[in-house]
Amino acid sequence: MSFARKIASFNAAFIACIALALIPIWSCANLPFVDYPQHLGIVHILNRYHDPAALYSRFFELKFFPRTNILHALLIHWFSYAVPLETAGKIFLSLYAILLPVSILMLIRALNGNRWMSLLSFLLVYNYNMMWGFIGYCFGTALFFATFALMLRHLSGEGRKWIPPAIAALCILVFLAHPQAYGFLLVTLIVSAAICGGGLRDMLKKCAVIIPSFVFLVPWVCSFIAERRGSLGGDLGAAFASPANSLRIKAADLLGNLTARLFYSDIVLAVLLVALIYLFVRGFGRDLFADKKFRAVLVMAALSVTVYFAAPLEFGGYHVVYPRFALLAVLLFAGLASRVSIPGERALRAALAMAILICCVETMAAFARFDRMAQPARELIAQAEPHGKMVELYYRGTFPRPVSYPAFLHFACYYQTQKDGLAGFIFPHFNRWHIVRLKKNYVSKRIDEWRASRSIFPGGWQEFDYFLLCGSPPRSEARYLEQLEFVGRKGIWTLLKNKHPAS
Questions:
Q1: Under 8 Å between Cβ of 329 and 308
Q2: pLDDT at residue 168 tops 90
Q3: Bridge partners for 436 per DSSP
Q4: Cα–Cα distances in Å, from 12 out to 7, 116, 178, 209, 347?
Q5: Angstrom distances, CA of residue 420 to CA of 41, 92, 379
Q6: Burial label, 142 (beta-carbon count in 10 A; 0-12, 13-18, 19+)
Q7: For the purposes of burial, counting CB atoms within 10 Å of the CB of 226, is it exposed (0-12), middle (13-18) or buried (19 or more)?
Q8: Distances, alpha carbon 170 to alpha carbons 117, 156, 166, 344, 354, in Å
Q9: What gap in Å lies between CA 71 and CA 51, rounded to an integer?
Q10: Phi/psi of residue 422, each to 5°?
């Protein structure tokens, strides 16, 4: 087969995989990403902030600088000028689903590797982080790989004038996307410059492309330290003392911290990764290690694995820190594996195609199950009156879970987007660095995100107008719920109304 035909064959396969990756997003009205309703609720506040009828300006204030983890909110907000909010959210998610594989392809091309290996990234579009709704981090990860790929080209001396300003702009975007992705990117660019550069002076010259992002970084770091001056040491101590930081737990749950936790997809990915590791070790040689770009990616892959095992589970309100590096490690390994000469390449292509098809079918089936169970909640919310306060009581274990994540946890946030109301728990309750912040006159205290009944019973439930029940409540809460007016019941969902809420 000629080179041109090989490229055409790959391009057709890559485009087909992109189409498959987009089907789950656009085939369902409700998406099973845990934090996703929270993000839509925040964007809805941005959209309606200056509308007197929505009353959001009474209880919230906006702060855009210095801020990180806001790029997803800004993009969805801008998209929603042209299309409805939930369509804008799907456009953003589609942009991520396209950008992640494209960025891995960019990295592999920068390494002069086998571009077919980039198809491995399609198995990880719907990964652990995405299923939890960490869409800012996921988008930042895609931008990270695109930036790293351009930096490798920059360090190799490619004379294209647009590469340095493109790296500088991408560094700013990664900072706005997520602080963890940006922090790892800074280390990556500096280490790569040290490995590939021609001395200290050349290294500093190449790293100058990072400096424009410091305009955003430095004020944010100063603000972060100032607000946590008294608690920084305690946060660090508590973070590393958690039993969840056990090396045994991290090793046992490595695959679970990488995937969407769908049975057949996990098996397929595990088998494929083991086979690639075997082929990589078998084909690794000194000639590869002599390549400075390959060495830079190898060092960063090793560092991402080290951070996975060394970082805490959470820090200062930011949950799930270390599992996010499992994705970085595997995708960096895919870049490394692309350089190894693998026997039976046709068999590898067939295996990748079969794996992608299996994962796509299982993902679509899981999303469809979730959508069927979620739609009744949206219909019940539509029956509620606007401008009230709704709390969700999420009773885990009382219904079959359509996906392996608590994806119904934040459905009360759809009351914001549908009825201009307030949800019982929103991210600004605990995240002081969010783009939307609570004013002192905010009408609700913070409640327990995971089990709202701990916070609202026996004292506190009177302030809410509506109670969205997911699952069956225990008998201990029946006497409180009996005082509420029944609005409707559909599937696993029940909507109750408080006739006389406390103001």
A1: yes
A2: yes
A3: 62
A4: 9, 11, 32, 35, 18
A5: 9, 22, 16
A6: buried
A7: exposed
A8: 24, 19, 6, 37, 34
A9: 23
A10: -120, 140
Phi-psi region of 144 (alpha: psi -120 to 50; beta: other; left: phi over 0): alpha
Starting at the edge strand found earlier in the chain, the sheet holding 485-490 runs 422-423, 389-394, 466-470, 493-497, 485-490
Question: Among 85-94, 338-347, 415-424, 481-490, which range has the highest average pLDDT?
Answer: 85-94
Instruction: Read off the pLDDT of each residue in 465-476 and give the average, rounded to a whole number.
Output: 92
**N- to C-terminal Cα distance for the chain?**
74
In 25-138, beta strands by DSSP E: 60-62
**Burial class, 494, CB count within 10 angstroms (exposed 0-12 / middle 13-18 / buried 19+):** buried
Q: Nearest-5° angle of CA 171, CA 172, CA 173? A: 90
CA distance 106 to 42: 33
The DSSP code for 231 is T
What pTM was computed for the model? 0.94
Can you tell me whether residue 437 is helix, strand or coil?
Answer: strand
Kindly tell me the burial class for residue 363, based on how many C-beta atoms sit within 10 Å of its own C-beta (0-12, 13-18, 19 or more). Answer: buried
Q: How is residue 331 written in tokens? A: 């995708």
Please tell me the distance from the alpha carbon of residue 465 to that of residue 421, in angstroms, as a whole number: 10
405 is written with which tokens?
């994540």
The pLDDT assigned to 22 comes to 97
- Rounded CA separation 24/242 (Å): 36
* Residue 319, C-beta contacts closer than 8 angstroms, at least 6 positions apart: 313
- Cβ(495)–Cβ(468) below 8 Å: yes
Return phi, psi of residue 329, to 5°.
Answer: -65, -45
CA 245, 247, 252, 256 torsion: positive or negative? positive
CA 496, CA 484: separation in Å to the nearest integer?
Answer: 6
Structural element, H or E, at residue 466: strand 466-470
Nearest in space to 34 (alpha carbons), one of 315, 401, 411, 387: 411
Per-residue confidence (pLDDT) for residue 319, from 0 to 100: 60
Distances (CA, A) of 271 to 124, 255, 276, 278, 374: 14, 11, 9, 11, 33
What is d(CA 396, CA 270) in angstroms, rounded to the nearest whole number? 29
Preceding omega of 66 cis (within 30 degrees of 0): yes
